[in-house]
Amino acid sequence: QVQLVESGGGLVQAGDSLRLSCTGSGRAFSGYAMGWFRQAPGKEREFVATSHWSGSTTYYADSVKGRFTISRDNAKNTVALQMNSLKPEDTAVYYCAASRSRILSSTFYSHARGYDYWGQGTQVSVSS
User: I need a surface site. Which of 21, 22, 31, 68 has the fewest CB within 10 A?
Assistant: First the structure.
């Protein structure tokens, strides 16, 4: 069992940066692929980024590629999402998720069903 807690959300202006953090407990992060998803009001949860369990491979949604960076610190059981050049369309609740899979597949990790544990989410609001 893994418990995940997100932090770092808030209200910012377009063009600003924000750094989200996810801290896990229960089991070591090193064995899990760690991902970020987001869900805007009235929309389905969508994939943002994933760090493969090995830490050597990352995947990003096209909408955030070049602006967001996912990183992990297995020693501290944390995964972060650095978000730069934020846009109003980035406004959503951001969720951290952990997957026990060892698959190397961007398609697999882009779907919420590929993840086994979820945090409660943190709100990110970007004003224009």
Answer: 31
